[in-house]
Amino acid sequence: MRKIDDEMRLSASDLMRFKNCRHATTLDLRLIELGDLEPSEDGAEAELLQRQGDEHELAFLGQLAAHGRRIVEIPKDGVSLEESVRLTLDAMLDGPDVIFQGAFLDGAWGGYSDFLERVERPSNLGAWSYEVVDTKLKRKPDPKHVLQLCLYSDLLAKVQGVSPEAAHLQPGDGSRFTVRLSEVSSYARRSRRTLEAFLTERPETRPEPVSACALCRWSDRCEERWEAEDSLALVAGINRSQRQKLEAAGIDTMAGLAARVERVPKMAAETQRKLVAQARLQSARGAGGPPSFELRDSEPGRGFGLLPASDYGDVFYDIEGDPYFPGGLEYLHGVWFRENGEWEFRAFWAHTREEEGRAAADLLAFLVERMRLYPNAHVYHYANYEVAVLRRLTAQHRTGESAMDQLQRERRFVDLFKVVSGAMVASEKGYSIKDLEAFYMGKRASDVATAGASVVFYEEWLQTQQQSLLDEIEAYNRTDCISTQLLRDWLVSDVRPAAMPWPALGIVPEGGTLSNVGVEDEELDALRARLKPVSERLGERVAELLLDLSQFHKREDKPTWWAIFDRLAQESEELLDDLECIQGLEAVGEPVKVTAKSFERTYRFPAQETKLRAGKAPCVKPASMPEDVSLRSIDYDTNSLVLRRSSAKGKLPDRLDLLPPQPLRKSVLKNAVAAVTEEIITNTGRLPAVEHLLRQALPMFADGFRPAGVISNDGDLPTETSRAISTMAGTTLAIQGPPGTGKTYVSALSIVNLVRAGKRVAVSSNSHKAIGNLLKAVVDRARAEEVRCAVVQKTSDDGDDDTHPGIACVSDNDAPEIAAADVVGATAWHFARYTSAAYDYLIIDEAGQVSIANLLAMARCARNIVLVGDPMQLPQPLQGNHPGDSGRSCLEYLVDGHRVVPSERGIFMPLSRRMHPRICSFISNAVYEDRLRSDEGAGNQTLVSSSGRDLVGVGMRAVVHFGRSQVSFEEIDAIASRIAELEGATYRDRDCRERIISSADILVVAPYNAQVNALRARLPSTVRIGTVDRFQGQEAPVCLISMTTSSGEELPRDIAFLFSLNRINVAVSRAQVSAMVFASPALLETQCRTIEEMKLVNALCLLHEHGGDNF
Fold it and tell me: Which of 117, 336, 470, 726 counts the highest number of beta carbons within 10 A?
């Protein structure tokens, strides 16, 4: 940021600093305009990156010259920006291959691009145009790099008269990253407009703790101000939402919080108790007192309930990683342990991607051997990073997975951060291990004293190979391991109540500690060897995928166990928005004995959405280990349920939470995957359809491949689709149906035509409900066309309430009705039992939510496979960390990264019968590459207010609020006002029939249970309100969508949840004529950590650009 002749000049780096923290921009302005401040100097890490970045840029320039590219360099030193801009235009008109240091200036924005590369796309320059290429040292592209690319690309577009389609980064590993500008430009433009408005309006700012503080040049000044003001920002563990609730209650200092006795409105009692204690202890410490702590109330499975007894064989573990390595590199695992009576440190180093996998394997081999030698030992670490990294590395490198799995099953890893945070409140300014060292060890003295410093040293070593640098890093890691040991010892000897029972080990195999690990590894190695013929015949990618799929269901089960243990350690209120749980149960009366060995108890619970259903066996909290209970019934109208439990397990408590059930035994699916894999290995030739899928081959028809397109674009799409399906020749075909395009209609039509031709059809999906919906459409169509069609659905309960008179429901997999039926609907659990093709076709509905592994399990039951769905709507509900392609849905895998299925690979249904063109145009542009359009009937729809105002369209209504995380009363008020605006409005449907809108014509969608509950309390009961998961497949004239959260700082989950393009697609596309998204404008400026996150937020920015409030 500079001022030239009283005009502000802005660059991409100014934009990034603003997005990180507005107060930093305020201080930058003060430095420029008043000059009375002095920022801190750049740290060693920043200087290192700048030097290496310059070297990388020059190296890339040399590579281009060596390849004979014609290059024009624009002079920069001693030349004004305006002159450089003129020289850049002259060079562009001349048309060289590359322009180095091309300059741009438009209004306040300007700068120097690293490179402009010529592309053969016409522009005002001639038959060519240019695209931006920037070199970046960081091997993984960063959002700030893309903001810079977008700025230069927009400036470039004004010069050459055509917008570039893409921009490029040349990372430090020699690869190239390309971004489609349409997927990020709305976000970048919004960011620039916001900074421009900020510079004009100059709103007052104050320092707020944000993630960028660690590298900010103003951080020291902000900390000085917080200290001077005794700011709430200093309270360890407090978040912005909590600070705002306190400030609303008149508490704006740590001393004021420490003295608070009265309840703070809208704050949970336990949260307030913890914050008050934190402020009191910190205040005393700040006044010169010694380090101190207070114990929290104990609870099984939390705090000291996670801390086992000490053992001679215990290991203390820490990791160092380098985020600047391509994709990041975990370059050092350090362990501290006792050997022959002496403490010993061992380092597992890795300097390449291959070595990273080997180091993880060697570490796990060491831990397995150690735990076998000392069966009561544990592995201690601080915070979740170490375990999360090992989970990722074992899956990514396909090594040590069985060891990692069993170590967790036996509960060998102990996270001391969870112990500390759940058991006590400490007087220090934070809860990092270095903060807690005040209790048990002296101050560190080393050049490498932080994780950031270790990265600088490691990057320096990569350049110089100087051994002393690695020695310093190893010493730092060793100290972290020793600190972990001393923390554990202090907790056991000085803090933990002596009378508390020690937690038990987890699930240990009958053969003893980790006895199953070697057997599982041997089985996997044997399968890898047996897949070599598949690699030669179908390709290495297919062989690798089959190896990964053999472990899919096991990998899916692992996080289920992890999640149960994690939730046992969480605060109860954290579970309210967890759809896998039911939070806050309170008993109604005493337990009632119902059998000789069991009793039942009734509970009430707060209104919330949940996936738990009657008949499930959820786990209960509090508990030290997973304990299940039978959920006998649940009533969502009265928010009550009944639990049954064996008398031998003891009385159920008065208050509890329900957690996810333990994983189901998936032996049927696992065995089927193994059997199908065996057939592919032996090349029986019986499974051509699934082999086509695995190879991502073009579909095969009776007349061969159809590279020009599976169907003609000129015919009737349902008819052409049915014909294409009928001529499939042992193959897999994808049918992509965006919202409202009638994929159920087309599927039912095709199935009835197949039955008419004497074919048998299997119908499957992830849920009995989805299967049942399609079967009902089949029955209705068959009756209308007078086609004899026997339809059977295999359900888990033959007393299903939502049955159809034309569907025979059975619960036995071997029921005789199944063998006699023309169409059979069931989940993978049924079709995985077939050993040969009993059906001509397997139709997978909602295939975007069905895993490749489950499709593989079903592959033997049919000769042809049709995947019907949309990978751009709700994705499959995955739990595990799956390597390679194995975590993709079957439809996602076949479409292979395309938002729209290529015409030679499948059928795209381009016509929405639901959405008015004004809504459809946004969905088409944001999601479907402008390939989706409305049919004539959808365009007939209108919505006119009682005053005659046109209400048709889609857009975002800005609702200003602050500090809201999972409930926004401001958005609830705005939605209520919108519903009032709609009162008396006239809706004309696609058939030109008119009616007055009622509350039943309105869907209201919110992301969180708490907001859903608050909306239900405020709005008429006839308005349908829920999360987006509830409404897939439904439609209404009006859909109102609450984003709820105030800003990226208040997100209760990650960006991918709230901003999911798939979820926004489903929510907006429920609307027939009017969709309005209610959102805080600060959400449009959410700080993004990855390019993928930027693409997600871009969708909301695009929506704001598309419609705004103008309807």
Answer: 336
Cα separation of 501 and 448, whole Å?
A: 39
Element (H, E) at 783: helix 768-784
Identify whether the C-beta of residue 312 lies closer than 8 Å to the C-beta of residue 418: no
The reply to whether omega before 265 is within 30° of 0 (cis) is no
**Would you say 11 and 110 are in contact if contact means Cβ atoms under 8 Å apart?**
yes
Question: Of 275, 372, 370, 250, which is closest to residue 315 (Cα–Cα)?
Answer: 370
Nearest to 95 by CA among 130, 62, 132, 133: 130
CA-CA distances (angstroms) from residue 204 to 23, 24, 198, 216, 964?
9, 12, 10, 19, 21
Q: Is 110 helix (H, G, I), strand (E, B) or coil?
A: strand
Burial of residue 861, with CB atoms counted within 10 A of its CB: 0-12 exposed, 13-18 middle, 19 or more buried: buried
Place of tokens 């990180």: 20
In the numeric block, the tokens 């093709």 are attached to 837
Place of tokens 């057997």: 519
In tens, the pLDDT along 373-417 reads 999 999 999 999 999 999 889 988 888 988 998 998 899 999 999
Q: Is the pTM of this model over 0.85?
A: no
Q: What is the pLDDT of residues 1011-1060, one digit of tens each?
A: 998 899 899 999 999 998 888 788 999 999 999 999 988 888 778 889 98
- Asked if 899 and 1065 count as a contact pair (C-beta separation under 8 A), the reply is no
Helix (H) or strand (E) holding 809: strand 807-810
Contact 572, 621 (CB under 8 A): yes
Rg, Å, the chain Cα set? 31
pLDDT at residue number 56 = 60
Could you tell me if 481 and 344 are in contact, meaning their C-beta atoms sit under 8 angstroms apart?
no
3-state secondary structure of 90: helix
Residue 372 in contact with residue 413, Cβ under 8 Å? no
Tokens 């309105």 -> residue: 1002
- CA of 572: how far to CAs of 60, 275, 422, 441, 451, in Å? 54, 17, 12, 34, 32
User: Which helix (H) or strand (E) element contains residue 58?
Assistant: helix 44-66
Q: Which two tokens stand for residue 373?
A: 């030698």
pLDDT in tens, 359-371: 999 999 999 999 9
**C-beta separation of 1076 from 1100 below 8 A:** no
Express each pLDDT in 226-284 by its tens digit. 999 999 999 999 988 789 889 999 999 999 999 999 999 878 788 899 999 999 999 99
Of 438, 422, 416, 424, nearest in space to 285 by CA: 438
The per-residue pLDDT for range 102-140, each reduced to its tens digit, is 999 999 999 889 999 999 999 999 999 999 998 876 656
CA distance 1084 to 1099: 9
Structure confidence at residue 799 (pLDDT): 44
Q: Where are the alpha helices (DSSP H) in 410-539?
A: 416-423, 433-436, 451-464, 467-490, 517-530, 532-538
Rounded to whole angstroms, the Cα distance separating 277 from 296 reads 10
Kindly state the tokens that stand for 313. Answer: 């064989």
Report the 10 Å Cβ neighbour count for 75.
Answer: 11
- Copy the structure tokens of residue 856: 């593989």
For the record, the structure tokens of 1020 come out as 């008429």
Tokens read off for 813: 């997999």
Count H helices and E strands in the chain, helices first. 38, 42
CA distances from 1104 to 919, 1042, 1094 (A): 13, 14, 15
Among residues 1049, 1038, 930, 927, which one has the least CA distance to residue 985? 1038
CB 121 within 8 A of CB 162: yes
Alpha helices in 320-448 (DSSP H): 353-373, 385-396, 401-409, 416-423, 433-436
Which of 501, 866, 941 lies closest to 710, judged by CA?
866
pLDDT at residue 17, rounded to an integer: 86
Q: Residue 900: left if φ>0, alpha if ψ -120 to 50, beta else—which one? A: beta
Q: What six digits make up the tokens of 85?
A: 């801009």
